[in-house]
């Protein structure tokens, strides 16, 4: 298990923590999170959608709108907001709520 916050996060700990604040329970695993909700195309992304990377899935980020995502690359680095296209290895997106 990695870092689940609030002082440090790994990628799935950050998304788990964010969704927990909204009353939605997610597992602390990017691979498990990648199976939840419903698929969404890049053209239909909405804030809160989860973005998954690599095959097999080993990283998750959250879309925040305007072509940006928030993610925690490792528990030793701060949470960052970056351009969605700044990271390679994107495989798919899922809408957990809504």
UniProtKB/TrEMBL annotation:
Superkingdom of this protein's organism: Bacteria
Q: Which UniProt keywords apply?
A: Hydrolase, Protease, Thiol protease
* Record flagged with keyword Hydrolase: yes
The record's annotation in Pfam families points to: NLPC_P60 (PF00877)
Give residue ranges for domain NlpC/P60.
1-98
State if Hydrolase is listed as a keyword.
yes
Q: Which residues form the signal peptide?
A: none
Question: Coiled coil: which residue ranges?
Answer: none
Q: Which family does it belong to?
A: Belongs to the peptidase C40 family.
Under which name does UniProt file this protein? C40 family peptidase
Q: Which organism is it from?
A: Blastococcus brunescens
Lineage summary: Bacteria, Bacillati, Actinomycetota, Actinomycetes, Geodermatophilales
């Amino acid at each position: 298990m990695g870092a689940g916050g609030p002082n440090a996060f790994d990628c799935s700990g950050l998304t788990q923590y964010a969704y927990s604040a909204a009353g939605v329970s997610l597992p602390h695993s990017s691979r498990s999170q990648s199976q939840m909700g419903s698929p969404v195309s890049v053209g239909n992304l909405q804030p809160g959608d989860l973005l998954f990377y690599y095959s097999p899935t080993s990283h998750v980020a959250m879309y925040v709108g305007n072509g940006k995502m928030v993610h925690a690359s490792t528990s030793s680095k701060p949470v960052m907001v970056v351009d969605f296209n700044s990271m390679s290895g994107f495989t798919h997106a899922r809408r957990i709520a809504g």
